[in-house]
Amino acid sequence: MNILLLLKAVADSEASIRPASDGKSVKLDGVSWVLNPYDEYAVEEALKIREADGAGDVFAVSFGGDEVPKVLRTALAMGVDRAVHVKGALSFDPLATAKILAAAIKDMKYDLILCGKQAIDHDHHTVAVMVAELLDLPSVSVVTKIERAGDKIRCEREVEGGTEVVETSTPCLITCQKGLNEPRYASLKGIMAAKKKPLDEVAAAAVTSEVEALEVKSRPPRQPGEIIGQGVEAVPLLVKKLREEAKVI
């Protein structure tokens, strides 16, 4: 089975993100870029499928700027065979991103597309399923278990209060959720091998973005806490403040 991975480079979740001087973007100078955490489950699942089959090609595609090659090298070090950097400027428009990715992969040969259920930066949750729609592929999202039988794939996905079982045929696109597997770490051997694996660069298709960020604001500062007393004597005052000031009870 040939598996295509759609991956994204995101800012490290511990990075301090602040509005840029234009007020419409964020300042990313000095930010460390990592593989989107949900995409790690997609990489691991692809590698597990290849190992179970004993054959198959696992390749990754990622759209973005100069931050992308480092992240693709991480995927290559984990065991991905090859990678393609679709170079271009990201926007806030998920449909524009989906169109660019669909144009980049439409002529590629694959049986399955895997990616994370969302990227932790823009949190759109929509790019992957838009790619599937643009390519006229069936898709299943938020998947926590994958089983294969011939050209059929049975998935378990999270729904409110339970689990839904869905079956589809290949080729298809699946977005991966936490719990699907336990992503592996890149070994020293894998890191060294990644330096020799192909990482191609192609230009992103020209697509007009129809969504514009009008303003980016910093998160408001947290209000300082208040110590109202100690022991059981402080309970009545605490309850009063929670009811009359915080209005949570």
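[next item in queue]
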Amino acid sequence: MNDAKESGRCPWCGTDPLYVAYHDDEWGRPQRDARRLFELLILESFQAGLSWITILRKRDTFRAAFHGFDPAEIATWGEAEVSRLLLDPGIVRHRGKIEGTIRGARAFLRIEGDQGFSPFLWSFVGGQPIQNRLRGMSDAVAQTPESQAMSKALKREGFNFVGPTITYAFMQAAGMVNDHLVTCPQHRVCADLA
């Protein structure tokens, strides 16, 4: 069933099969794997100023271009790789975001070696997903004190394009907050996974 109203599904994903599958199978499910979190954070940073469906449609190409979002490899990149990526029509070709990904990979390695990237990120929600009870899209917010704190901490570590709205979208996608509408079947699934 693709009709969000009939299914109770969150309406933001519409009826696009790719978006519906993302909503039903990924968005809001607690993610604790450090490398997956890195990938998601980088993709969210590329989304800044664009729609998420644009990034979702390019995700496989991003994964190929960024070598599976391997931070150890990306951290070694320089101008040659930036130039290569700027010529790749399958990704968002934005020099600042590409260079930011390289800086982010270096920051990831420092954080991972110090305290673990996943525990670092999850610390902003006390290690457990926040269970919101949104009744409609008008209840949704664009940022929270937690996303503001995460944004500041990530920027201090060397990440960029991680303002508090981007970090909140990341927190939603990574299941750090459960922002499925209470009418959506995925709200209960994500709550149970917490």
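[queue empty]
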